[in-house]
Amino acid sequence: MRRHIVNRTNNPLERFHRELNKSLRPHPTMKQFLTTLGILAREYVVQRNAVIAGVAVPPSRSGFVLPKAPRLPNVTDIEDSASSHDSDSRVVDEEADSERYSTDM
What we know:
This protein is mainly α. The longest helix is centred in the middle third of the chain and has 24 residues, at 30-53. The protein has a domain at 12-53. It is 34% helix and 0% strand.
């Protein structure tokens, strides 16, 4: 048995939109659109009532594991580079010499 890959989402609206697009052809007539919308709405009502009545159970979600936090060095362990103490090292603003454009029109 082959399963097709389906993009899954936790957002019910995105899921409904995906199912609606799957059920319709491009540029449906108003009658086709409303008929398909009614069918999908009835399916959702039946599914919801089955879950409420206990006939069907909602899908169980597997737990997830968060990755371990990276270990950062202490601030006292960080050494300054030699270039940070140079008196010649200064930040040059290249835009300081350029003309300023007026936004007034």
